[in-house]
Structures are given as C-alpha cells and as structure tokens.
Write a structure and sequence with these properties.
It contains six helices and six strands, in the order H-H-H-H-H-H-E-E-E-E-E-E. By secondary structure, the protein is of the alpha+beta class. The strands form two sheets. Strands 2-3-5-6 form a four-stranded antiparallel β-sheet. The longest helix is centred in the middle third of the chain and has 21 residues, at about 95-115. About 20% of the residues are buried.
C-alpha cells in the first residue's frame, strides 16, 4: 500500500470516523505497530493493575512485641537486675486498721527493695530520721553498696503483720514477724567481702504515725 493509496482510503471515511481513526491509519501506513503501546513501546497498564502492583510491593509491617525484662536476683557474678519496684496499695493511705496493715507491708517491701538494689530512697521518705534502729539499717545498706559493692540474698518477708489499732491515737503499733535470708557480701572486683550474715526469724514492733493523709514510721523496736 502506497502513501497516496492510504490518503485516498482515509478520505472516503465519514468525517467523524476519519478523526477517530486517523492515528490507526497513519500507523498502518508507516509500517504498523501496537496501538496499545506507549511512547516507549511498553504495553499500557490499567489503573486497577497499577494499584494492585503497588499494594503487593509494600506489604504492611508487623510490629515486633517488646520483651518483658526478666528479674534476676544478685549472685556472686553481679547485682540483681530488673528488680520489681513495690507498688503502693491505695489502702495504705487510709487511717484505719486495714490501712495501717497495708502500709506496714509496703514499708517492708521498700526496705527489701533497698537490700536487693542499694536504693532505699523511697523507704527513707516514709521513715522518720529520729528512728534509731532505722538509721542502723540505712547505714548497713549504704556500706553494703559502697564503691561498687553489692550483696546477694538478704531478702525480707513479713508472714505476720498484726496492727494494734486505736482510733484517734497519736501513734499506732504493729507487731511484725520478719524473716530474712542469709546475706553474702561482694566487692566491686567480685571477691567476697565481709563475713556473711546468717538468716533470721525475728519479731519487731513498728510505731507509725498518720499525718497529711499518709502513714510514716517513727520508730522500730526489734523484740529480743
């Protein structure tokens, strides 16, 4: 088919058909080609196919769950790790017999946290500076963790807590059974420190006062 024949063939078509089909006729005259090809000869892609390709190319990421820190007690190799911080019960701020009992258990839990970590700051906030035996405990803790030292064992438990509550009294007394495990002491270089302390099972009288909407320990008397 010559160029002149192509032109004459196109002129016989209606005007509308000539306009719509001009691209096809001219392409046939120039040697043929794929009418669906784009400017670079690539086959045209439908919008639906494009969207599908994009979706498959970018899969949604699955969040990786965070690992829960695992509690590890102290041993000859190093300090305790991830020690749970005692949570104060709401009842511990009530000026009642039940509130005094809850507070006393919480107070000892904070002391135990101090023995395991060397951090007794929260315990000290609920302890009067005039409590002589409390000050002895405070100094013992400071020495046990001085200059990179640490201690293993020594955990406290209070299986029996019996408040002698008297409504309206200026101070209240609580009789507490205190069990403490044997304690080993270590230096910063992991060598053994002072002689280990044996375990104990004793009783103490806690004297507590209520002021400003909370309890605090004003004195502590071990029962010999």
């Amino acid at each position: 088919m010559t160029s002149r024949t192509c032109i004459s063939e196109r002129l016989r078509l209606p005007v509308i058909s000539a306009i719509a089909g001009s691209a096809i006729v001219l392409s046939a005259c120039s040697g043929g080609g794929n009418p669906q090809a784009g400017p670079t000869g690539t086959a045209a892609v439908s919008p639906a196919q494009s969207a599908s390709g994009s979706a498959s190319a970018t899969p949604s990421a699955t969040p990786t769950p965070k690992a829960t820190p695992v509690y590890k007690p102290a041993d000859a190799k190093g300090r305790a790790q991830n020690v749970p911080v005692p949570v104060k019960p709401a009842l511990a701020d009530k000026n009642t017999k039940e509130g005094l009992e809850a507070f006393t258990k919480y107070w000892y839990a904070l002391l135990n946290y101090g023995f395991e970590t060397g951090d007794s700051s929260s315990w000290q906030k609920l302890t009067s500076g005039s409590c002589e035996f409390c000050n002895i405990l405070k100094k013992s803790l400071a020495v046990g963790y001085k200059e990179g030292r640490w201690q293993a064992g020594g955990r406290l438990s209070t299986p029996s807590v019996e408040p002698d509550f008297e409504a309206g009294a200026a101070s209240q007394q609580v009789v507490v059974q205190v069990i403490q495990e044997a304690t080993q002491y270590y230096k910063a270089d992991k060598s053994v420190g002072r002689s280990p302390a044996p375990g104990s099972n004793t009783a103490s009288v806690v004297v507590a006062t209520y002021s400003g909407g909370r309890w605090a320990v004003s004195d502590l008397h071990p029962i010999r």
